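B., you asked whether I could sanity-check this one before it goes into the benchmark set. Here's the sequence:
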Amino acid sequence: MVLEDASERKMHRHSDGVTYYADVPLGVYVIRGDSIVLMGQVSSDEQMKELQMPELDEIMEASNLEKLEWDFDKDLLA
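And here's what the prediction gave me:
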């Protein structure tokens, strides 16, 4: 499968009940069939608010949560 204009959605559920998110553009990705677990469109929710990545990072740092780092390109290498 070839994905064009792919993006990664980073999300953070805040204590105020709002889920903040930012989309990080990835470009073109080629995915092998055995790498696909689930794919679908996410419906919009009034409890979700889009931010730019620097703003989302600030909110996550202010909530004192440990930031999860995962690099798709490096972590799946055998």
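One thing to flag: The first strand starts at residue 2 and ends at 13. Otherwise nothing jumped out at me.
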